[in-house]
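Q: My labmate handed me this sequence with no annotations at all. I'd like to see what the chain might look like in three dimensions before we decide whether it's worth expressing. Could you predict it?
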Amino acid sequence: MKTYKPRTPGVRHLRRPINDHLWKGKPYAKLTFAKIGHGKGGRNNSGRVVMRHRGGGHRRRIRTVDYVRSAPGKHIVERIEYDPNRSAHLALLESVKTKEKSYIIAAEGMRAGDTVESFLSGVPRDLLVSMGGVMDPGMLAAKTAFRGNCLPMHMVPLGTQIYNVGSTAGKGAVFCRSAGTYATVIGKEETGSEAKKKVKVVIVRLQSGEVRKVDKDACATIGVSSNPHWQFRQLGKAGRSRWLNIRPTVRGLAMNAADHPHGGGRGKSKGNVHPVSIWGTPAKGGYKTRKKRNPNKYVVKERPRNQGKRKRDN
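A: Here is what I predict for the chain of 314 residues:
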């Protein structure tokens, strides 16, 4: 982490990850569009505030990220870029064959000049020839499971760390897209006889501890998402938070009675009510909101919940 000499109060507590390898120019313009309109202020299409504490902030351009990675063939990493819209870094790729450019979420350790490839559309003929025409799983993993390569889930070896994990075949990644996140492949459900076994579904463990099933043809990228030290950053001052489009959060206790259940009264008094949100939902004490009668059938094991209490050592 980079720290600063406290020449001003705003930089005394400023902490930033050191990322000297990032591109210092502008983004690739053809893959961006401006973020405009009242959606920046947390409003929906009818103008109502649906996400509080949003507004202001620096101008941004949205980068169009390829979460599907369906294009086959080798791609060269041109550069690693900062993206103001997410915690992870982006990699600008160029196809060797078609010269088309695309953005993907960069893997930790990925640098300009690296070569990555997607195997979602199948194993290339030249790779099959190099293995002697036989589809050996161990040999295939040794030749495809490299950092930044996109594989269907059934081709990923057990115990491999992956990010940009999809849930459904033919659709983009939905899990492990933030900085420093990854999932681990822990099992594969197979069907058929010993001679003709086929993978039916793949089981992954997410960083929250949740274990869930994903489709055998869903996408996954080998490696860990870039910028893992992002979680240790410190903004240093309130103004830096405003630059990031984040507005202040006011305590309910400090509001008027018309604005919050905890508001009003003489002095600091919340009126002998249990802690609730601004809409009246209980905020503490392990209040559950998930339906018992309609569990998620793809979740094998739910993430551990300790309801705000300290974890036991047992």
